[in-house]
Design a protein that fits this description.
Blueprint: E1 3-13, E2 22-37, E3 41-48, H1 61-73, E4 80-87, H2 97-113, H3 119-130, H4 136-141, E5 144-149, E6 155-160, E7 167-173, H5 179-183, H6 192-210, H7 215-221, H8 228-231, H9 236-247, E8 252-254, E9 261-265, E10 281-285, E11 294-296
Parallel strand pairs: 3-4
Antiparallel strand pairs: 1-2, 1-11, 2-4, 2-5, 5-6, 7-9, 7-10, 8-9
Helix pairs in contact: 1-2, 2-3, 6-7
Bound molecules: adenosine-5'-diphosphate and the ligand N[C@@H](CCOP(=O)(O)O)C(=O)O.
């Protein structure tokens, strides 16, 4: 049986003001070994995050993504699929686990089908399945990404390299919050002044992360009025931690739809983070993943 190994990074979306647009790939990975078998049925094993929780059959998200991909590529559905998943990205914490699973499935299907299927169609289908492109873009491409959809609904991205003096630190709670639930807390409309506030901050954040990683600029650049406070009632401890960190000068935001908190650490703020974080949080210092999803056939490794 021919197999393929896929490695996909965790991602942090929004980064404060860049709701549904900005995303950062992180050095925390899920690994999937995928193969097609001659026997009918799906065989999935999961270790690490999600083990004992996720479906092990056709409803498994990686399997669903593979099935979607075979359909889009116009390739016959394989009789059987075998997956071995080694998961490190915690689920429903705002670190892009579902996006990583979808990307892994699409890339596995493309590699095993051995057909030419353009990267932009992989990006489009992953975005369609996920509902928004901001986790998908950094998961596929790595680095810091700006993603948007055109008037026909097709997603696009620009990839940037953040300044290496900025280090992402994630503060992961044990509590979970499904992205769908968090999206349900957002209002249909927002005040014009809040939209204009976020537009300025998001533009500043790109400048600060790529060219001017100064704490003062990063603090201003990570302010948000479009999503975090609407969602705070569903994650009061995250909201309080963001507030505490910002009060001592650490640029902190809710990661994705939460409840993980993302802090941008620089040489002058790195020692300020731990004292504000209680025992209920798992602190992980990260690097920015520069390359995104990786696909390898075992025989070429
Ligand atoms: N590696 C995975 N394998 C199977 N299902 C997954 C995987 N990662 C995420 N999921 C599914 O996606 C859900 C989390 O998605 P979501 O609420 O969007 O949160 P996140 O911020 O982690 O993406 C999980 O509860 C699980 O059902
Ligand atoms: N822009 C989305 C990002 C969701 O990210 P996730 O990692 O929590 O799935 C949102 O804020 O809803």
């Amino acid at each position: 049986m021919r197999t393929v190994d896929i490695r996909v990074p965790a991602t942090s979306a929004n980064l404060g003001p860049g709701f549904d647009a900005l995303g950062l790939a992180l050095s925390l990975y899920d690994e999937v070994e995928a193969g097609l078998t001659g026997e009918r049925g799906v065989e999935v094993s999961v270790s690490g995050e999600g083990a004992g929780e996720v479906d092990l059959g056709e409803r498994h998200l990686v399997v669903r993504a593979m099935r979607e991909a075979f359909g889009r590529m116009g390739v016959a559905q394989p009789a059987g699929i075998r997956l071995r998943c080694r998961n490190r990205i915690p689920h429903a914490r705002g670190l892009g686990s579902s996006s990583a699973a979808v990307c892994a499935g699409l890339l596995a299907a493309r590699a095993l089908a051995e057909v030419e299927w353009p990267d932009d169609e992989v990006f489009a289908l992953a975005t369609e399945m996920e509902g928004h492109p901001d986790n998908v873009a950094p998961c596929l491409a790595g680095g810091l990404t700006v993603a948007w959809s055109d008037h026909a609904g097709a997603p696009h991205m620009v990839k940037l390299a953040p300044d290496q003096r900025v280090r992402p630190v994630v503060l992961v709670p044990s509590a979970r919050l499904a992205t769908e639930t968090a999206r349900g807390l957002l209002p249909k409309d927002v005040p014009h002044k809040d939209a204009s506030f976020n537009a300025g901050r998001a533009a500043l954040l790109i400048a600060a992360l790529t060219q001017r990683p100064e704490t003062g600029l990063l603090l201003a650049a990570t302010e948000d009025r479009l999503h975090q406070h609407y969602r705070a009632p569903a994650m009061p401890q995250s909201a309080a931690l963001v507030e505490r960190l910002r009060a001592v000068g650490v640029p902190a935001v809710v990661s994705g739809a939460g409840p993980t908190v993302l802090a941008f650490s620089t040489s002058d703020t790195q020692d300020l983070i731990a004292p504000e974080v209680g025992n209920d949080w798992h602190i992980q210092q990260m690097d920015v993943d520069p390359v995104g999803a990786n696909v390898q056939f075992p025989e070429t490794r």
